[in-house]
């Protein structure tokens, strides 16, 4: 039995594409993901743990969303503001010690206004020991469970602290989880204003520079500290496609805004979805050993749509790999092979292929003839040596 490779007979796979120049980001770290296909479009220092600034508030929000979903918090529940929550500067809701604020207002205050004080109120309510430090430990543990292996939290707000770090891949994964796990809450991220305190009416605008540009942006969170620079976890949807990304380490808010807009435009204009095969379509034939048929059709069990560069140029081809010839009997639907697609500058795709039909074993006489032919072939090869 040997590993065999076949050209895949799919016209749709002969896609005209050209080598794509990688996006030349000014960010010190960046990660761009096409949500539907899971294709990573850009990865720069993606797994380096870095200070996330306010972007780490997304983890506080995710845990709060879980608590509301599970009934441990309710949106109309009023939580008390502690002296510790009132001690923070930076972006705040200007909460006062001793007042009580509803969970819904706190969530909007974190999402739209990036309130450090609102984060602490939520943290102290959900912490296993009633402290922000206890909540931060819970954040780290939950992040590890979610596969965010380069994230460690020291507080709930992203306030500068030694060892408080996240990677841009982790931040993008977290954004994806918020979008997919909590679609109702996610709508809040597109709000451009939230007026919490009439006395602080100037403090009502969302800092996300993409929301008003008409490019499909609907989230998620900006961040800035002197150590972290300017960063953004963003997402935009155009048609059926959604792009999620994180950039950090930029030198100014204006640079962040230009970079984020450029990434969204690049991701949607330079890539397009292509359906390369439909469920049940036979795309290749594999050799069969001692079967009633000499070959078996290979098919995918579901429609396959992938993301490919959207520029003219050379072709992207595919191949089928299997170990064969495959001995009969072969049951319909049995996994037999892999379809391998290798686009330029993008990760390869490996898709399992299955038997399109059953192939019973051949009868006794036919099997003996097959064995005899193999033995005769071996003898002739030895004589020729």
Strand and helix map with partners:
Blueprint: E1 2-7, E2 15-17, E3 29-34, E4 39-44, H1 57-70, E5 78-80, E6 100-102, H2 103-113, H3 116-126, H4 132-145, H5 168-181, H6 183-186, E7 217-225, E8 229-238, E9 241-250, H7 253-269, E10 271-277, E11 282-289, E12 295-299, E13 304-309, E14 314-316, E15 318-324, E16 326-327, E17 335-341, E18 349-355, H8 364-384
Parallel strand pairs: 11-16
Antiparallel strand pairs: 1-15, 2-14, 3-4, 3-9, 5-6, 7-8, 8-9, 10-13, 11-12, 12-18, 15-17, 17-18
Helix pairs in contact: 1-3, 2-3, 3-4
List keywords for this structure.
single chain, 385 residues, alpha+beta, Peptidoglycan synthesis regulatory factor (PBP3), Domain 2, Beta-lactamase, seven-stranded mixed β-sheet, 8 helices, 18 strands, 28% helix, elongated
